[in-house]
Design goal:
By secondary structure, the protein is an alpha+beta fold. It has 6 domains: 5-168 and 1279-1392, Rossmann fold, CATH 3.40.50.300; 196-208 and 1108-1271, no CATH class; 227-295 and 947-1096, no CATH class; 320-399 and 823-908, Helix Hairpins, CATH 1.10.287; 410-464 and 767-812; 581-704, no CATH class.
Length: 1403
């Protein structure tokens, strides 16, 4: 059957292609031209885009770039909107399948809308894509003219439709085909290729795990991770809330304790003032009574005073008493004079003492002045000595500014030299450090040398041990028999490989043995496979024979074979065939029966159908049923002689009446002699038949179909024959299975020998790696030692330079260069300046002391003069006082006796009056005292009332400040029960009213009870609850601040922890005057922090149950099992593909007889986990323990990758981890006649001839495509695309390479800079020589045809491309709507607007 081939393809409004059609010749098309001509653009938007419908820029662009989007291709000329088409036609004789992708792009829309069509109609014949005015149809218009089932909305449906119409691969293998074709399409495929790049290309052609499955698994893992993250969030939030609550509770306890202490203090003040008010009230009452009693006593004392005063006045009016007045006056003068003399004597004594003290002070000051002068002289000497030490030239004057200037200049010299000295010290330190670094580097280099020597020894020991192991291995697996896995020459090759083990690119021993044993293994595998196939064939044959025996025994195959023209269904038809309706008469011999049955069979009468009603036969013939029928001949036309009725008898059955059967038998003559011109049907007893011009014969030995006895005999004979065949087949099957078991055992021996060889030499590789590492470290250590030594030399040179600079600076400044001497000069400068300052200060002090001494001496002289004057005045007063005293004594002696009596009475009355005065004074004092007490009590009462009012106001204010701490949201943090709500401040009594209540209650209650009774309702109980919850020592401001600071820090950490959570937690706090209230807002709203912590802990505990490791593992296992199965299926498919490729390439030897094979082996540069999972996938089946191991490995690989790439998404992780293609690589095998098969390495490839190189590279690639196409439908197209095909390959080799595509029966879509296919190995190819005009945005293409003999273009008698294409296609190509299709009416459809219109399907 003719297969589909690509016949033509086209582009409409894509890039610079306004309307371009390309025609294939025998399935081959070449686009050639310079860079920028548009050949690659045509390839990238046609193939494989037209086969998969994916607009990913990385699939469109052969260079896997992202800048060539389909939108940019449609709007290339700067349009706002554009419709476009890509299409390709496949033809198989008269049958065609056309693939169309309709697209619409708009500059304001990011995506290109697409519709997909798969139709059996032919473009330009049955429909068109352009109107007469060259406007593209919309997808809605196109849907109306194609079959309803032609339109598809998604790329997946489109690919399924293509696969169903053309390939028949199934979704997965069709995707694998597209991936391989995309890999083959890469530009410059053949240039500088080597086997490694071939492996990469073939690997890229393998189908990855479907992206949809990866995305689904990624979503599932993301969901698991989301649940885990939610659990982690909850756990983190719970932990953060718990940690914060500890600090928050401490803070609240500190605040509560602080405010409780203040409330207690204010309460004590109120109670104290209340007690004071109570005491003041009692005192007022007592003082009022005491004052009344004292006032009475004072009144009585006043009356007595008045009486005694009157009596005293009468006595003093006596004449004798009046003379007493002069005597009193004199007595007073004498007393006053005596007092004045005493005072002046004391003053003179003090003045004399003062003068003596001043003289002592003057003497002391004089001595101090002399001492200061001596000190100045000593300081001057010290200054001179310091100046000498400091090398300062200084005069003996006391110019302090000059001394300071000299000291500053000299100190600068010291600093300059000290700077040089410090630089020298730093240089010395650098030198010492450099010396230490050199020593350490030397030690490291010596240690590295020792390590290298040790590594060399270990390598030698490892090689010796590996050689011993290799010999022991060879002893175990070598034998004289031909079936041993190790041949005689293998050991020498392995020993040679062992010597080179560890070198770059050197294979492991197991790989070398694998190469050596590959031929044996392949032969054994092929033998085992052939024997398996033989066993399967024999088993199938045995089963077939057994089934035939059963079918024969069940009488299901008694019928003779029908003629090919009798195809009508007989299942439900009335009647039966002749052979079932009759039997031979008893007197008919076996020979006659066999002859008659043979004649009836040869004539077609034996299987002819007889209806129970002749009218049914007429109807069947009228309807044209493909069958043969028997009708009785009319009685007049029947044979006159013997008929079949004489030898055949109707059977007892219900299908056809016996009468009709007998009439049919009477209509066929039975003769002994052959009559060739009989006009009626006739058979003979010799197996002959005749009916007019139709005659013939058939000899049979026995009758088989007519009669139950004959049929039973036939069944017995056939059953016996089949049973004999079954016995022979069973013996052959047993022999094949035994031989297969032997081959498989020998094949297993090869595998086990290779497996045992795996660890041999591993220690050598380890030792080589260690030696390389140690050698690298040694080189680094030696380099470091050299660097350190050079650094030491530099440090020494720098130190010498600094020493020279130090000496030069010291010489220039008349300074020493030693540090101690410099310190001496620095100290001398300090001493010089200090002594200079002290000398200047002492000179000032001496001048002041001299001035003070002179002033003191003047004061002493003045005081001595004043003291002498005072002594003279005192002597005069003492003389006057002595005379007055004498006169007083004389007058007193002259007094008379009556006067004495009166004086005695006056004295008595005066004493009584004095007593009365004292009594009045005492009473008055008591009155004043009690009055003062009363006033004081009243003042205390009023003050206490005011104080208690103020204190109570402060207490209420403090209670109000405590109110926020009593908020119900904060009580759980402190462990306080909900209890009574804190009363509203607006409902509290005023302090004045409360004070009045307290005063009223003080009469019957103590102060504390009275105060508590007026507090707002419920506050006392709440305060006691908080007191119990926060009992402890008093909190000061410092402790309170520390608690607040800790809480602030914890709040910040809490906020950071919540912000780090993925869940939207928002921390909200209100820094009130007395307390910070913290709340958390989550998805359920705003909650107090304690409530949030409680809810979070509960959710974390609940989520923790779901996220137990066991539950997570079960969920992951379910996901990983599906992924593992998908990978296993793809690996199995890949292995089947490789087997087909290997067999295909080996069956196509080169001209030298060299063949190329392909293996898919475990890659070298993979992780241990990838290697282990590759070995699992190499086994048959994926069940039980192997599935569990694979799940474990996948889980481990996912976690390892996420650990190394923490920011990667699960889709990225799974795409990387599940890419099974990276676990293995393709290995090309080279078999040269007469030589062992070897791996085709890059080195061996470079040694091949040019033609062999090209063939060796392209054979596997073409074989991969051939293998996939071979598993598809027999009529499928076999198209490959090659961008820049065969670039870099000599022209001499191109015929063979192109011949390979012909031998593989591959269609080819190729591009090339100067590619001409004009070789006898290619029967035909269409070329388009292309040119792009950038100014007009157009592409021109000239068709050139290779017809197998020559290149034909329009110059060979054709008017142009269209006429030449017509010659190829058999009709004139066109993309316009046929005139008779009725589609021109679509131009009135509003959807034809190419500005902003939509295709109509919304895609």
């Amino acid at each position: 059957m003719t297969r589909f081939k690509p016949s033509r393809a086209g582009l409409i409004n894509i890039w610079d292609y306004t309307d371009e059609e390309f025609v294939f010749a025998d399935g081959r098309l070449v686009l050639r031209g310079h860079n920028g001509s548009g050949k690659t653009k045509a390839l990238e938007v046609l193939f494989p885009f037209v086969l998969d419908g994916v607009v990913d820029a990385r699939r469109l662009d052969p260079f896997s770039g992202e800048n060539r989007t389909m939108k940019s291709n449609l709007l290339y000329r700067g349009q706002e909107s554009e419709y476009g088409f890509v299409w390709m036609e496949f033809a198989a004789g008269a049958r065609t399948v056309t693939l169309i992708i309709a697209m619409h792009a708009h500059k304001d829309r990011p995506e290109v809308k697409r519709s997909y069509f798969v139709t059996s109609r032919r473009l330009g014949v049955d429909f068109g894509l352009l109107t007469d005015d060259s406007r593209p149809l919309t997808d809605q218009q196109l849907k109306r003219v194609l079959e309803p089932e032609a339109w598809h909305t998604t790329p997946t449906d489109y690919r399924d439709a293509i696969d169903s119409a053309l390939f028949g691969l199934g979704r997965e293998r069709y995707t694998q085909l597209l991936d391989l074709l995309l890999a083959l399409r890469r530009p410059l495929l053949a240039k500088d290729l080597d086997p490694g790049k071939v492996s990469d290309t073939l690997t890229a052609g393998l189908s990855p795990v479907p992206e949809s499955l990866v995305e689904q698994a990624a979503r599932d893992f993301d969901n698991l991770a989301a649940v885990q993250r939610q659990f982690d969030d909850l756990t983190a939030a719970d932990g953060a809330a718990r940690a914060f609550l500890e600090s928050y509770a401490d803070y609240l306890r500190a605040e509560v304790r602080f405010h409780l202490d203040r409330v207690a203090g204010r309460t004590r003040q109120v109670v104290k003032h209340a007690g004071e008010v109570a005491v003041a009230g009692a005192e007022m009452r007592r003082a009022d009574l005491a004052r009344g009693a004292a006032e009475d006593e004072r009144t009585n004392a006043g009356t007595e005073q008045n009486r005694l005063s009157a009596r005293l006045d009468g006595l003093k009016k006596d004449s004798a008493y009046t003379a007493q007045g002069e005597l009193e006056i004199l007595r007073g003068q004498v007393g006053r004079q005596a007092q004045e003399i005493v005072h002046e004597r004391e003053a003179n004594a003090r003045a004399a003492a003062r003068i003596a003290d001043l003289r002592t002070e003057v003497d002391a000051a004089d001595r101090r002045l002399k001492s200061s002068r001596d000190g100045v002289r000593r300081l001057a000497a010290d200054r001179a000595e310091a100046a000498r030490l400091a090398v300062i030239v200084h005069s003996d004057d006391d110019d302090l500014q000059a001394a300071r200037a000299q000291a500053g200049a000299r100190r600068q010299d010291v600093e300059d030299v000290q700077a040089c000295l410090r630089k020298l010290g730093d240089a010395e330190k650098d030198r010492r450090r450099a010396e230490q670094a050199v020593d350490k580097a030397r030690e490291r280099a010596e240690a590295a040398e020792q390590a290298v020597e040790t590594a060399v020894g270990e390598l030698e020991e490892g090689r010796a041990q590996a050689l011993d192991d290799l010999n022991a291995w060879a002893g175990r697996w070598s034998a004289d028999s031909a079936g041993s896995p190790v041949s005689a020459g293998d050991l020498a090759v392995l020993i040679e490989a062992l010597d080179g083990l560890g070198e770059a690119g050197a294979p492991r021993l197991a790989e070398v043995f694998g190469d050596l044993a590959e031929t044996r293994r392949t032969t054994l595998a092929r033998t085992a496979a052939a024997l398996d196939a033989r066993s399967a064939q024999l088993t199938a044959e045995r089963d077939r024979l057994a089934a035939l025996v059963q079918e024969i025994a069940a009488e299901r195959d008694d019928a003779p074979a029908l003629a090919g023209a009798r195809r009508a269904d007989r299942t439900a038809r009335q009647g039966a065939a002749l052979w079932r309706l009759v039997r031979f008469a008893d007197d008919v011999s076996d020979a006659d029966a066999a002859a008659i049955e043979g004649a009836l069979d040869a004539a077609g009468l034996l299987t002819a159908w007889i209806h129970p009603d002749p009218r049914l036969t007429a109807a069947a013939v009228e309807q044209g049923e493909a069958d043969a029928y028997l009708l009785p001949a009319p009685p007049g036309s029947r044979p006159a002689g013997a008929t079949l009725s004489s030898v055949l008898v109707p059977e007892d059955q219900s299908h056809v009446p016996a009468r009709i059967i007998a009439d049919v038998l009477d209509s066929i003559a039975l003769t002994d002699v052959f009559v060739g011109t009989a006009t009626t049907p006739a058979v003979t007893r010799r197996g002959q038949f005749a009916f007019g011009v139709h005659l013939g014969a058939q000899q049979k030995t026995t009758a088989e179909y007519i009669g139950a006895t004959n049929r039973a005999a036939r069944r017995r004979a056939r059953i016996a024959e089949y049973e004999r065949n079954i016995e022979v087949t069973s013996r052959e099957l047993s022999a094949a299975q035994a031989e297969r078991d032997t081959s498989q055992a020998r094949l297993d021996d090869v595998g086990r020998a290779k497996a045992e060889l795996q660890p041999v030499g591993k220690d050598v590789l380890t030792a080589v790696g260690t030696l390389a590492q140690k050698s690298t470290l040694l080189a680094a250590a030696r380099a470091e030692h050299g660097d350190r030594a050079r650094a030491l030399d530099g440090a020494i040179a720098e130190m010498d330079a600094d020493r020279r600079r130090l000496r030069q600076a010291a010489t220039d400044r008349n300074m020493p260069a030693e540090e101690k001497e410099i310190e001496v000069i620095a100290q001398a400068i300090t001493d010089f300046l200090t002594t200079a300052e002290l000398v200047s200060e002492q000179h000032k002090h001496i001048a002041s002391a001299e001035s003070d001494l002179e002033s003191r001496r003047r004061t002493i002289a003045s005081l001595e003069a004043e003291h002498q004057t005072a002594r003279d005045t005192l002597a005069e007063k003492e003389e006057g006082h002595a005379g007055a005293a004498e006169r007083l004594t004389a007058m007193e002696e002259a007094l008379s006796a009556p006067l004495k009596e009166i004086l005695e009475q006056i004295g008595h009355i005066e004493r009584e009056l004095a007593a009365a005065d004292e009594a009045w004074q005492a009473a008055d004092t008591s009155v004043r005292r009690e009055h003062d007490a009363l006033v004081g009590a009243r003042v205390a009462y009023q003050h206490g009332t005011g104080a208690i009012t103020g204190a109570l106001g402060e207490l209420l204010d403090q209670l109000a400040a405590f109110g926020p701490l009593a908020h119900p949201d904060l009580r759980p943090v402190l462990g306080v029960g909900s209890g009574t709500a804190w009363p509203d401040r607006a409902q509290w009594a005023t302090p004045e009213q409360s004070v009045r209540d307290i005063i009223e209650r003080l009469a019957g209650q103590d102060a504390a009870a009275a105060v508590e009774s007026v507090l707002p309702q419920g506050t006392a109980d709440l305060l006691r609850s908080y007191e119990e919850a926060t009992s402890g020592r008093q909190i000061g401001e410092a402790a309170r601040k520390r608690a607040r600071d800790r809480m602030s820090a914890a709040l910040g950490e809490f906020d950071d922890a919540l912000n780090a959570c993925e869940e939207d937690y928002r921390l909200d706090w209100q820094p009130g005057e007395s307390v910070v209230v913290v709340q958390v807002q989550d998805a359920d709203g705003r909650h107090p922090v304690a409530d949030f912590a409680h809810r979070t802990a509960a959710r974390a505990e609940e989520q923790g149950v779901l996220m137990e490791e066991r539950e997570r593992t079960v969920l992951e296992d379910e996901l990983l099992a599906g992924l593992a199965q998908q990978i296993f299926q793809r690996v199995v498919a890949a292995k089947e593909l490789v087997r087909g490729m290997d067999a295909d390439t080996r069956s196509r030897p080169m001209s030298t007889g060299t063949t190329v094979g392909i293996r898919w082996v475990v890659a070298d540069k993979i992780t241990d986990s990838q290697r282990e999972i590759s070995e699992l996938l190499g086994q048959d089946g994926l069940e039980g323990a192997r599935l569990a191991d694979m799940r474990r490995l996948l889980r481990q690989m996912i976690r390892e990758y996420r650990a190394g790439h923490p920011r990667a998404t699960y889709k990225e992780v799974l795409s990387k981890v599940l890419d099974y293609r990276t676990w293995r690589s393709f290995e090309l095998r080279l078999k040269v006649p007469g030589q062992e098969e070897v791996r085709l390495s890059k080195k061996r490839h470079s040694q091949m001839s040019g033609g062999e190189k090209s063939a060796a590279i392209h054979l596997p690639l073409f074989a991969a495509a051939n293998s996939l196409y071979s598993s598809a439908s027999d009529t499928c197209p076999r198209l490959i695309a090659l961008d820049e095909a065969f670039a870099g390959i000599d022209d001499v080799y191109k015929p063979d390479l192109l011949g390979l595509t012909v031998r593989y029966d591959l269609d080819a879509f190729m591009t090339g800079h100067d590619l001409w296919i004009r070789y006898e190995t290619v029967p035909a190819a269409a070329h388009y020589d292309m040119h792009s005009d950038k100014a007009s945005h157009t592409v021109s293409a000239m068709l050139v045809l290779w017809d197998g003999c020559q290149l034909v273009d329009s110059a060979a008698g054709f008017a142009g491309n269209e006429e030449l294409a017509t010659e190829l296609l058999g009709f004139s190509p066109s993309r316009r709507v046929p005139v008779n299709s009725g589609l021109l009416g679509l131009v009135d459809d509003g959807s034809m607007d190419s500005g902003d219109g939509e295709p109509g399907d919304g895609r």
